[in-house]
Amino acid sequence: MSQVAVVTGASRGIGRACATLLAERGMRTVVNYRSSRAEADAVVAEISAAGGEAWAAQADVTLPADVDRMFAEVRDRWGGVDALVHNAPTPFAMGSFRDLTWEELGGKLDQEMRAAFLVTKAVVPDMVERGRGRLVYLSTGLSRRPRSGMIALGTAKAALNQFARYLAQELGPHGITANVVAPATVEETWSEERLDPALLEQMAAATPLGRLARPADVARTVAFFAGDEADFTTGSYAPVNGGLAMD
């Protein structure tokens, strides 16, 4: 029986690339979306046309009832989850600390960690019972290297990074790995909508590999951590940035 992967926020961008690649590699894939039903259905259609198995699951991953409903349906259809790829974005304010309110900073922290907590809680019991599981969290290089105006996003993702490390330590004895994939600015995502095109050009020019990341670049790293090749890798932070930041 093929393994099961749940990809949150999979209707577009990085999530879509992850869902299609995992399906291509033989995993039955749950394409989670919050409101973009048509786009999620298009991802499922693409996977099905290529011979894979997928279905679209609506859930706002910051809402406990939605998360419970989605994972109950996953268990009913396909049994437990082998790999969780938590990619779903939550809104955040851009701006300086001086202009930021606590509601904006604290709200981003709360939504970021609430979503990660809820989806992880939903899959870990079955993973522990089976003695195997893969947890992959999408972060950002801004969690380690600050950029003006990105304090809310960078702080929230830094908390996510540490959350994954604690999970790696606690769940390792149960055969469960937890890893973070941290891309730099990625084409075909919110970056193109919210960042100045001139800034995007500057970042691409400053990258040793000469371009911004693409969703497929990120998906390949995610697929490594979600698969069997990463059996002995946990608690890691993997930048996907073309050499823009070399830690």
Folded structure, characterized:
It comes from Pseudonocardia yunnanensis. GO terms for molecular function: oxidoreductase activity. Keywords: Oxidoreductase. InterPro entries: NAD(P)-bd_dom_sf, SDR_fam. The protein has helices at residues 13-24, 37-49, 64-78, 102-130, 151-171, 190-194, 197-206, 215-226; strands at residues 4-7, 28-33, 54-58, 83-86, 133-138, 176-183, 237-240. It has 247 residues and is an alpha/beta fold. It has one domain (4-237): Rossmann fold. A seven-stranded parallel β-sheet has the order 3-2-1-4-5-6-7, with helices on both faces. Strand 5 (133-138), helix 5 (151-171) and strand 6 (176-183) form a beta-alpha-beta unit. Helix 1 (13-24) packs across helix 8 and helix 4 runs parallel beside helix 5.
Helix content: 40-55%
Structural class computed from helices and strand pairing = alpha/beta
Write down the Rg.
Answer: 17 Å
Assembly category: single chain
Instruction: Give the CATH architecture.
Output: 3-Layer(aba) Sandwich
Q: Distance between the terminal alpha carbons, to the nearest Å?
A: 39 Å
Question: Mind describing the biggest β-sheet?
Answer: 7 strands, parallel
Order of strands in the sheet with most strands: 3-2-1-4-5-6-7
Domain unit count? 1
Strand element count: 7
Shape: globular
Number of helices: 8
> Which H/E pattern describes the elements?
EHEHEHEHEHEHHHE
Average of pLDDT? 93
List the uncertain runs. none
How large a portion of the residues is in β-strands, by DSSP E? 5-15%
Query: According to CATH, what is the class?
Result: Alpha Beta
How is the CATH topology named? Answer: Rossmann fold
Look at the structure and name the CATH superfamily: NAD(P)-binding Rossmann-like Domain
